[in-house]
Amino acid sequence: MIGRKNMGRASPLLLVLLALGFFFAMYNLLTLVIQYKDSSSGAGSGIPDPVIRMPTNLRKLGKSNSKFHVALTATDAPYSQWQCRIMYYWYKKMKNMPGSDMGKFTRVLHSGKGDHLMDEIPTFIVDPLPEGLDRGYIVLNRPWAFVQWLEKATIEEEYILMAEPDHIFANPLPNLAHGYNPAGFPFFYIKPTEHEKIVRKFYPEEKGPVTDVDPIGNSPVIIKKSLLEEISPTWVNVSLRMKDDPETDKAFGWVLEMYAYAIASALHGVRHILHEDFMLQPPWDLEVGKRFIIHYTYGCDYNMKGELTYGKIGEWRFDKRSYLSGPPPKNLSLPPPGVPESVVRLVTMINEATANIPGWDSLNSG
């Protein structure tokens, strides 16, 4: 956990260091924003070189090993908090099991202030984007959160897993990356080649074929820390430019930031190893098997015969969006017979976590 230390009277040296830290953070943000404004005022495919780099004097060095640091970006909203608590519970259970390469864990909190989970989940506080810059699309804070965290935090592991609050570790996760080739999950709805006209606004022809843009998002991805330091500032820049382009914003919608990461990676010449067993997504994936992460982004609706009624509220359902203002209750009802094993496993794992996390029912607001 990132806590506050009792420092007593601040020394002049400490004040100078704090001032320098604040200066570098603001300098980097202003640089990104200026680049964004410059690119959005251009024509054609945008600025000649869309790549933005992390200032080298702000990079951290860590010891080399195959362990990966688990990092997820989050807000302090109750909806995000209860998912983070379940995610962290299963991280702790899987971390030291055979086959796991999990290292330490950080919730990168981009609310600019602490919350009541600081003592429960290791947390690093970063600032959100300046007000209005995300245009109501809060996910744009994710790349900016990673830029700040990578600049300021001491990260021992050589690799980083970018995860999300609605991930549950179903099996011990090894390091699926291979050297400078990160590991990613292929999303069926990320289709750069079908959106070539739009992709070319941000990935010029001279950079290579559109097929060099991997069909991924930023999460889940296991990546070398040094590579993520290179990609993240460009990821911020591309995300902001995309959001500012009406055609792109309309075409990509809620997956805009995912496309931005894929394009930013390609701009840096980074290709991902695609692992279909990295993650499963109920109710479409029917069995957990040897896959590593359950991503419960979709609603699971069934009738009492065990038949999927997707798009229509079922007689039995689990949908994380049913709990926007607070956590789900303990001991959720299990699905009726005939429902796929993946959905049963999801609800069973949520019930185990809520039964064992202290103060689940009472600690539900900021």
- What average pLDDT do the residues reach? 87
Please summarize the sheet with the most strands: 7 strands, mixed
Fraction of residues in helix: 25-40%
Radius of gyration: 21 Å
How many strands appear in the DSSP assignment? Answer: 12
Order of helices and strands: HEHEEHEEEHEHHHEEEEEH
Summed up:
With 366 residues, this protein is α/β, with parallel strands linked by helices.
Describe the protein:
GO terms for molecular function: glycosyltransferase activity. Its main location: membrane. Keywords: Glycosyltransferase, Membrane, Transferase, Transmembrane, Transmembrane helix. It holds the Pfam family HPAT. By secondary structure, this protein is α/β, with parallel strands linked by helices. The protein has eight helices and twelve strands. The strands form three sheets. Strands 3-2-1-4-7-6-8 form a seven-stranded mixed β-sheet, with helices on both faces. A three-stranded mixed β-sheet has the order 5-10-9. The protein has a two-stranded antiparallel sheet with strand order 11-12. Strand 1, helix 2 and strand 2 form a beta-alpha-beta unit. Helix 5 crosses helix 7. The chain is globular. It starts with 11 loop residues before the first helix and ends in a 10-residue tail after the last helix.
